[in-house]
Amino acid sequence: MFKKILKTIMLAQAASAARKTLRYLSDRDLDDMGLSRSTFVDGVVESVKADIEANVKDQPISKNIKCVVNPNLLGAV
User: Fold this and answer.
1) pLDDT 10s digits, 23-46
2) 52 CB contacts (<8 Å, ≥6 apart)?
3) How many Cα atoms within 13 Å fall on the side-chain side of residue 16?
4) Which of 5, 9, 39, 66 has its CA 20 to 30 A from that of 31?
5) Contact predicate 4/56, CB 8 Å
């Protein structure tokens, strides 16, 4: 259950970041990537989802959490 919650949070963060990134991309930039404004966020989320399935699926929870935390930010709070 915790893995499912963690996966949902990761996908929501990816969607949020994609929406913010979309503001700074021109239509030409998106065309160069083969995407449009309507497919960019979904494409990023699907990419992250595939990455999660490939890399995080069979690992223990403690290792999943460590890969989510940015090592540059440890101890910053």
Assistant:
1) 999 999 989 988 899 899 999 899
2) 7, 10, 11
3) 6
4) 9
5) no
